[in-house]
Structures are given as C-alpha cells and as structure tokens.
Amino acid sequence: MHYINGSCIYPVYESKQAGIKSKRFAFSAELTTKLLVAGVPNYEILLRIQSAPGKSSAMKWHTITDIIYAYAACWIDIRIMPFLKK
Questions:
Q1: Contact between 62 and 4 (Cβ < 8 Å)
Q2: Sign of the CA dihedral running 5, 9, 10, 13
Q3: Which of 23, 40, 41, 83 has CA atoms 20 to 30 A from the CA of 5?
C-alpha cells in the first residue's frame, strides 16, 4: 500500500458492509483501513499527480476534525466492538 487515500478498487459487497461513518475527506482512509483489517483484497491504482504550487486546501479545521472523528470511530470499530459482540 503506497498511500492510504489513494485510488483503490474494492469488492462492492464488502465495501457496502464496512459500516463507513466518514462523509468527506476521511472516507477513503476509513474504508481502506476497515477492509484491510477484515482481510478483503484491494487493488491499488498508482497515479502520478503533480500538485499545484501554493496553499493547500486540504488542511482546514473541518478536515482535521473529520480526520480525528474518523480515526476515533475506526479505532472503536476495529479494537472495541469485536470484544463487545462476544
């Protein structure tokens, strides 16, 4: 895996069953993490993208809060929920 927010192809059924909570920036990272932990195969598409010079639009407060929320939700789903389901 080269880049967690990169373009990947996943099986449709498993993607729909993953229980993704993220809506924006962290969607791809949450999907990738949950499917990799579940052992679902993925196919990464390597793209070479030249970033535009100047200020990045990715680092905004709403993006940072999305990432924190997605990380916490993903951690709970992967580390805590399996123990509660036993």
A1: no
A2: positive
A3: 83
Residues 6+ apart with CB under 8 A from 31: 10, 15, 18, 20
DSSP state of 39: T
CA 55 to each of CA 37, 49, 52, 66, 80: distance values in angstroms, whole numbers, following the listed order:
34, 16, 9, 20, 38
The CA dihedral of 75, 79, 84, 86, to the nearest 10 degrees, is 150
pTM above 0.90, yes or no: no
